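so im writing up the methods section and need the DUF58 domain-containing protein record in one place, dumping it here so i stop losing it
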Amino acid sequence: MKLIRSLFISLRIWFVLAGFVVAFVVAYAVPVLFPVFQIAFGVFVLLLLIELVLLYRDSAAGGQPIFFARRDMPDRLSNGDENPITLYLESRYAFNTPVEIVDEIPFQFQRRDVLFTADVRPNETKVIRYELRPTRRGEYSFGSINVFVMTPMKLLKRRFQFEQGRLVPVYPSYLQMRQYELLAASNRLTEVGIKRIRRIGHSMEFEQVRPYTQGDDLRTINWKATARRSDTNQSNLVVNAYTDERSQAVYCLIDKGRVMRSPFEGLTLLDYAINASLVLSNIALLKQDRAGLITFSDRIGQIVVAERRPGHMLKILEVLYRQKTRYLETDFEALYATVRMQVRQRGLLLLFTNFETVSGMRRQLPYLRRLAKNHLLLVIFFDNTELRSLLNAPAHDTEEIYLKTIAEKFSYEKQLIVKELGQYGIQSILTAPRDLTANTVNKYLELKARGMI
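--- predicted struct ---
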């Protein structure tokens, strides 16, 4: 029974059998050909038996499995990123084995193309790599690795199954967080769109001298230290480095209301905000600030008090992993009351939300002004990229002109929101979802360089 379940007949056999059926029909009309076709059919059956014996060896010399496969992947996947998946195949057959591999990936990916082919030589380890991009947080169930092994004749297939199911959680974009962390450590944040911000004034405490890098303020060059060098090439210039003001509270306030449910490129606005909050919190800790978190919708969700201690980023990551969108109207009054009770000292509040109209923003404006009275408030909301593409496309008929006019109205409303927030001294960012992380980190570094926090 086990043999039947693991035995598959290739398409090639059906073509051969169809050929024999035609041949025997012809032999019925030409009897002299009948013995020839009988011998050919006997040889074909013999080849099938030989192939069956070769495929169904249970073990190689030394008792090792005749074929082995495994899936190598992270213990958790990063949401919105390309996560590497590696398949390892090992063959101990005495001949080259053409194989087909079907990896049973979670249904959330909605992919039907995870089928690979390869030729595995005797005692060779074959490596197959591919990538998966999840767009939702939660648990993903991976199934088996189905490997169909054939002989060089490719008449029969033997199926092997490995990795009998595995649950893997999908967390907020920790790969993006690590990327920004490594680039920040090597002073290469400009590679991901982070601008080098020049400090205004030098009221900060002197820390050390270091080599000049492109973008440093020329006024910080230490000419005396440079003169001690053997030559005066730019590569040997040194500048004074100053320490930023440290231990400031940086809170990410994440709106989980229905306005954050909108999808862009597979991810919801909430997921974009969560990924950006994770990166920003890590950058804040690297800048010696304290990172905190408050989630809210029609009621207050999770609160992570701003701290800077070992394991704090893991705590923020676990809290962000569990966040889900709610479908009710966001209560900004409850947010203001919570911030007033939880955040006693002045800090930076990064509010991730979305406003589509000026009237919608004005309903929440009294609470935003109260938040900005005691803290530096940065409101971050989203530009509608679909409307932007519609605006850039030419209009050919009356309907398209009408749609373009409506799109221009909504786009203009977004600009009015930025302008009105600025009139009340509230900082704001209007950004495309894909640029959210870079723009948020840029603004944080700018505010820090200007001494506003």
